[in-house]
Amino acid sequence: MLVTYKYYSLLFEKDFPNLRFGRPRSDTCSKCDLYQNKIKSIPLTNPERKQEAQKLELHHHKAEKARSTMNTDITSSQTIDSEDNTISIDWEQVLFIPTLTHSDMFYSRQLSCFNFWVHLSNTDDAFMCIWDESITGRGGNEIASCLLKVFSHPNFPKRKNLVMWSYNYWAKQE
Fold first, then answer.
1. Which residues pair with 91 in a beta bridge?
2. Mean pLDDT within 141-148
3. What is the DSSP letter of 76?
4. Residue 157: cis peptide before it, omega within 30 degrees of 0
5. Residue 15 CB: number of other CB atoms within 10 A?
6. Residue 112 has what pLDDT?
7. Are 165 and 88 in contact (CB under 8 A)?
8. What HEC string does 101-123 produce?
């Protein structure tokens, strides 16, 4: 018997209405994950479920407001007469060297390389600060050193104000 997609879809929707397929998400917000898991673990009839759903909705609203404010800052800094530099910063994924996937290498110690990214919204330039774990870790001093290096670069525009957005930070704060 040949099982068609339509048959499978109908069966899946009927027997498992609360389950969904989707691409695995990476780099998700811990607060979103926490609220989602709380909501899923509370029975539908429990009033606490609605409270958790409202908390998640409020969190999403705050994140959208932050995104909107960031987009306004970026647009504003791109005007010719703007006195603002708007930059976005983020840690990129840790890179492992050597990049080999066979089982012998997978469980061996590899060298971690860190990548701190700075994007200048008004010029569309980007800077990557890259180093490996034998030099240092990835803490506040390393971020400050990267920013100092970028700010002193000849391509960094000299303007009166600096607006800085961190992609991994704004969505998590309340």
1. 116
2. 92
3. H
4. no
5. 8
6. 87
7. yes
8. CCHHHHCCCCEEEEEEEEEECCC
Query: In this structure, what is the dihedral angle of CA atoms 72, 73, 76, 82, given to the nearest 10 degrees?
Result: 170
Three-state DSSP state, 13: helix
pLDDT of 109: 67
Identity of the amino acid at 143: I
CA dist 79 and 62 (Å) reads 27
Q: To which residue do tokens 């898991």 refer?
A: 37
- pLDDT tens profile 39-76: 999 888 898 999 999 999 999 999 889 889 999 999 99
SS3 120: strand
Among 54, 52, 15, which residue's Cα sits nearest to residue 35?
52
Using the predicted structure, report yes or no on whether residue 167 has a pLDDT greater than 80.
no
pTM beyond 0.90? no
Beta pairing, strands 95-97 & 84-91: unpaired
Name, in order, each residue with C-beta under 8 angstroms of 119's C-beta and a sequence gap of 6 or more.
87, 88, 89, 125, 126, 127
Domain residues of the chain, as ranges? 28-170
